[in-house]
Design goal:
The chain is of the alpha+beta class and 238 residues long. It contains two helices and 17 strands.
Length: 238
C-alpha cells in the first residue's frame, strides 16, 4: 500500500476520534460540571531519502480536557456546591480517588456527604466528610468549611492534577489521574449553586460540521486513489 493511503487512513482515524469527542461534548452540554474535551493531533515527518520528498503523517495522539470555568446556577440546595476558579472536589470510588466539578451532593444514611452515586466526598486530608444527623442547619463557607448548627465539622477539599493533561475521563463526569491529586488553595466554594457544563453547543456543532467536511474530503481522496490503483492494475494485466 502506498504512503499516501497510509497517511490518509491515519488522518481519517484521527478525525473520527475528534468527531466522537465533539458528539460527547454536545451530549453533555447540560450536564452539571462537565468539562469538554478536544483531540490533540501530532505530525510525524520522516525523510525518505533518494531525492524523494519527506513523508508527513498526522495522528490523534490523545485528548485534552478544557478546564475553562462554567457558569454558576443558583439552586438554593443546602448541599449543592459550586467551585469558582481552579480545582475539583475529590471523591472516593471503588476504582480509587477521582475528581469532579459536579457538586450536587447529599447526606447519606451513614452521616457522610456523598455524590449522587453514593461515593463519599473527601475533605482536605482525604477523609470522608461527616454530616451529623439531627442538625438543623448546615453552612459552607467559601473556603470549604462545613458548619453544623454553627460548629465547624470539616473542610471540603479542593484538589488539582499536577498536570492537566493527565486527567482521564472515568465516566459519570469524574476524572482519574496518573499521579495523586494535590491539595489546592485559592478556589472558592459557593453553597446553593451548581456549575454548568462549559460546552458551547453552537461552537461544537460548527466544529462538527468542519470535521465532517474534512472527513468527507479525505474519503473522496481515498476513493479516487483506489480507483487509480485499480485502473493501473487492470491496464497491466490486459
Amino acid at each position: 500500500m502506498e504512503n499516501t493511503i497510509y497517511a490518509s487512513l491515519n488522518r481519517q482515524a484521527g478525525l473520527m476520534s475528534e468527531m466522537r469527542a465533539i458528539a460527547n461534548n454536545i451530549a453533555n452540554a447540560s450536564t452539571t460540571g462537565f468539562r469538554k474535551e478536544g483531540v490533540v493531533f501530532a505530525e510525524h515527518v520522516k525523510a525518505l531519502g533518494g531525492g524523494e520528498p519527506s513523508l508527513s503523517m498526522a495522528m490523534a495522539s490523545g485528548r485534552l480536557v478544557n478546564l475553562e470555568q462554567g457558569g454558576l446556577k443558583r439552586t438554593g440546595g443546602t448541599f449543592d456546591l459550586a467551585i469558582e476558579g481552579d480545582g475539583f472536589f475529590m471523591v472516593q470510588t471503588p476504582s480509587g480517588q477521582q475528581l469532579t466539578r459536579a457538586g450536587n451532593f447529599t447526606p447519606s444514611p451513614e452521616g457522610e456527604l456523598v455524590t449522587a452515586d453514593g461515593y463519599p466526598v473527601l475533605d482536605t486530608g482525604g477523609s470522608p466528610i461527616p454530616v451529623p444527623p439531627g442538625t438543623r442547619s448546615f453552612a459552607v463557607a467559601q473556603d470549604g468549611t462545613l458548619s453544623a448548627d454553627g460548629t465547624p465539622v470539616a473542610q471540603i477539599g479542593l484538589f488539582a492534577a499536577s498536570d492537566p493533561s493527565q486527567l482521564i475521563h472515568a465516566g459519570d463526569n469524574r476524572f482519574s489521574t496518573t499521579t495523586p491529586p494535590q491539595p489546592l488553595e485559592g478556589g472558592r466554594i459557593f453553597q446553593g449553586f451548581l456549575e454548568d457544563s462549559n460546552v458551547a453547543p453552537v461552537t461544537e456543532i460548527a466544529r462538527m460540521i468542519e470535521v465532517q467536511r474534512a472527513y468527507e474530503m479525505g474519503q473522496s481522496f481515498l476513493d479516487k486513489e483506489d480507483a487509480r490503483i485499480r485502473a493501473v492494475i487492470q491496464s497491466m494485466t490486459r
